[in-house]
Model the fold of this input.
Amino acid sequence: MERPWRKRLRRAKDASKETQDAPMEAQDMAACDSGNQERRELSEPESVCQANSSVIDIHEEESPSQAAFMEDVRNELQDMLKKFEDDIKKLLHAKRKRFIMNTNASVQSINLMIEHVWKTQEEQRQKLYREYSQQFLTLFLEWDISVQETKKEEEKLANLFREQQKIFQAARIVQRQRLKKFFNLYDQFLKSMEEFQKEHEHLLSDEQSEVRREMAMLQNKIVMDAQQQELATIWKSLQYLLSDDAEDRTGT
Done:
């Protein structure tokens, strides 16, 4: 169905064409009359002047209406472009809002993931501390008990030097063994802590790399979707305008 403003535009074009053709036809008729009827120029000057004046009056009467119509068409086109611009702004605002919501959701998910990793590491660290603390405490208690027993034996066997020396040497050997065990356990603790730290640093680095990669993919996907939707909207608008223009040409 043809739009009303396009019908008015076609009528204005036809009126303008008729207005432009009318003076030319009048001039041709005047030329023919002047060439073929020179003898009647003196008797018919008033009729020719009246014809010319009527054509000029028609042109002057239709020109203001044509200008007003063109002004209406121009205003309608401006309103259409403004509406199209408002639709694009609304679409961009909606896309921006959706992008912000997706970004906030991703950030929240990342924070929850980091918090979960941190809690897991903290629990494992506390578990490791408890295990080694218990072992250290047991070892210190045993070592303290051994020292107390050694002192008691030294006091009891003060007069028996040889027997005391043997017992003392035996106690010293036991203490050295336990002290060596203590240092070995301490070295194991340090190595375990280093391995634990390296393992969790590697795990955290992998998680951060995965999070960055997912964020980059999400951002690229959002940008590509927005560009595709914008191009589709512009393409539909161009097709709409081209189809209307084709209908106008077919109608004319």
Remarks:
- The chain has one domain: 4-251.
- Helices lie at 4-36, 45-156, 161-251.
- The two ends are 14 Å apart (CA to CA).
